[in-house]
Fold this protein.
Amino acid sequence: MRIAVVGATGFQGGATARLLAERKHRVRTLSRRPEADRPELPGISVAGGDLGRYEDVRRLFEGATHAAVVIPLVYQAEKVMTYAQHIAKAAREAGLRRLVYNSNTRVPERSTNVAAFETRRLAETVVRESLAHSGVEVVVVRPPVYLDNLFSPWNGPALVNEGVLAYPLPAEVPTAWISHRDLAEAVYAALTVEGVAGRTFDIGGAQTLTGQELATAFGQGLGREIRYVELQPTVFQQGLAHILGAESAAGVAGIYHYMASGAEPGLLSGDNGVSAEALSLKPAPVDEWVARQPWQMWSGEES
C-alpha cells in the first residue's frame, strides 16, 4: 500500500505510521514544524504542510492508495470542518481504495455540548458524506482510552514509587483500555480486511475494567499493590495545559468532565468482541502490556 497518514507526528497517528512502515508499506505524512524540528520517523516520508491548506493535503494524497486519518487536537468546529473537507476532497481526487478515520475517542449516540465529541462527529460526517458514491471505502474506528496515557511523566512516578494510579475517570466507570500499538493494529486491519467498508467500530482492549480492576491489573504487571485514585477532571486539565496549551487541554478534558457527569457511563466500555472478531484483533491484556513497559525509568522520580 501507499498510505497517506494524517497525524503521524502525534502519538496515535505515529503508532499507526510506524507499524505500516515496519510492514514495508510506503508511508508519508505532513508536519507544520520547520524541517529542522520535524520528528524522526524512520521509513516515513515527512513533508512540510498544513491541513488548512488544500494544496498541501492534495500533495500528501497524490499517488496514495489508502489513508489513515486522525484529526489533530484541535476543537474549533470551523477549523475541523475545513480539515475534513480538504481530506475528503483529496481522497476523492486521488482515487483512494480505502480511508480509515480514527475519531480519537468514542462518540456518544446523541449530540452533546462537548467539543471533543462533536468536532469528531462533524469530521466523520463530512468525510462519509463527501466520499459517498465516490468509490472510496470509508471505515471508522472509535477508540476508548489509551494505556499509554499512564506511562507518562505525570503517572509513571506515582505508580512506581507510591503505588498510586490517578486518572480522571470515576472509579466505577467500565473502560476498555487500549494501547497505541493495539490501536495501530486495529487501523491496519481496518485498512486491509475485506467486508468492513462503511462500518464503524468501537474498538477496545482485551478487557473492560473499572478503576480498581485496572489498578489490580497494573499491580499484577508491576508486581506490587496499586490503588486507584479518582483525579478531578479540572486538576487533570490544569496539568495537561502545561503540555498541550490551554485550548487543547480544555478539549481533551471535556471527555472526562462528561464522564464524571455520569451522563453515559458505558460510553468507554467494550463492544462485546464485535470489532475484535470483524478485524481479527487480539489486543494484549492490561497486565501483559504493563509488564512490557520500562517502568524503571520513573523509579525515584517525584510524582
In short: The radius of gyration is 19 Å. The CA atoms of residues 241 and 249 lie 5 Å apart.
